[in-house]
Specification:
This protein is α/β, with parallel strands linked by helices. It contains twelve helices and twelve strands. Strand 1 and strand 2 form a beta hairpin. Bound molecules: zinc ion (ZN).
Length: about 325
């Protein structure tokens, strides 16, 4: 509606005033109506807050509406997802995206920045830029686009857009009526992981510190102690909605399940280690049948490696 009406408007000296008026009208009258048709991949988690993911284990993008414009959390699993989010953003609001908060600097969260910025300001924890520079998103895009015309179209115009702001430890972002608290999560997934807490809405973004029925990909510099500390810190906030980096939005049960996984893992690795088993033997022998329905089982050995390190560190 807004576009059609604006196109019919004659260009006069009063244009900006007229456009402003139409803008206000559309923002207050049309928004609830258009919000109902955002496609099959969008879930509404609160009034004005939507989560997009095309496939169940894809990286989530959250669109947060405020009276002063939109905020995005991450920018899409692939550039095609970033374009899909761009189309949703256009349906939702006449405002552009003002801020992008990156929960992590990997390509499946951060490579779509170029679709929204400028004017969007990109915010991430210190270390994100360095990690993104090593990320080689161009090669990733090239792989994605090979033999895929939709993706080839989506990556058009790609340029690296690094964080404009890197914060340290904690940051509060206030946009219109919304307050977002950014909290650094140390050693949980990447070099720069950010949880986001909206205290009024009681929504927490947990980044990739947790998955939803998916084995974690644990890099050697992480520690299970730090991951458990982050999980417990976030659960203490008592969120009503928990949104992991990947996987459908849920509740604090996501934290309980992940904690249970790590506690059982540590216990079993400690038992085998006490029997004198080597890391390789433990990798061969250890079973976690409770989590057989989780995705990405090929990552399980990285869990065993970190658990073995944790257990060795605690043995006298
Ligand atoms: Zn990642």
């Amino acid at each position: 509606m807004g576009d059609a009406m604006q196109k019919r408007m004659p260009v006069t000296g009063h244009r900006s005033l007229v456009t402003l008026f139409i803008g206000a009208l559309v923002a207050t009258v049309a928004a609830p109506g258009v919000a109902q048709d955002l496609g099959p991949h969008v879930r509404k988690v609160r009034d004005g807050i939507w989560v997009y993911a095309a496939k169940p284990q894809d990286a989530n993008v959250t669109i947060i509406e405020t009276r002063e414009g939109l905020v995005l959390v991450d920018t899409g699993q692939t550039p095609a997802d970033s374009r899909a989010v761009q189309a949703i953003v256009k349906k939702l609001s006449l405002h552009p995206v003002r801020f992008i908060i990156l929960t992590e600097p990997h390509g499946d969260h951060a490579s779509g920045n170029f679709v929204f910025s400028p004017p969007a300001i990109v915010i991430a924890h210190a270390g994100a830029t360095e990690s993104m520079k090593k990320g080689n998103f161009e090669a990733r895009n090239k792989n994605l686009a090979a033999g895929n015309p939709e993706m080839r179209e989506a990556v058009q115009g790609y340029r690296p857009v690094m964080p404009h702001i890197e914060y340290n430890q904690k940051m509060t972002l206030t946009v219109g009526e919304r307050t977002l608290e950014l909290i650094y999560l140390k050693n949980v997934h990447s070099e720069a992981d950010t949880a986001i807490w909206m205290p009024q809405e009681r929504i927490l973004w947990a980044a990739a510190s947790v998955g939803v029925k998916r084995y974690p990909n644990l890099r050697p510099f992480l520690t299970i102690d730090d991951i458990l500390a982050s999980i417990r810190m976030m659960r203490e906030l008592k969120p009503e909605v928990v949104i992991a980096g990947h996987g459908p939005p849920g509740t604090t049960e996501i934290f309980d399940e992940m904690e249970r996984y790590y506690m059982l893992l540590l216990e079993r690795v400690a038992n085998l280690s006490r029997l004198g088993k080597s890391l390789d033997e433990i990798k061969q022998e250890l079973r976690m049948p409770e989590f057989d329905d989780w995705a990405a089982k090929e990552r399980f050995s990285t869990s065993v490696e970190l658990a073995y390190k944790a257990v060795q560190g605690k043995q006298p």
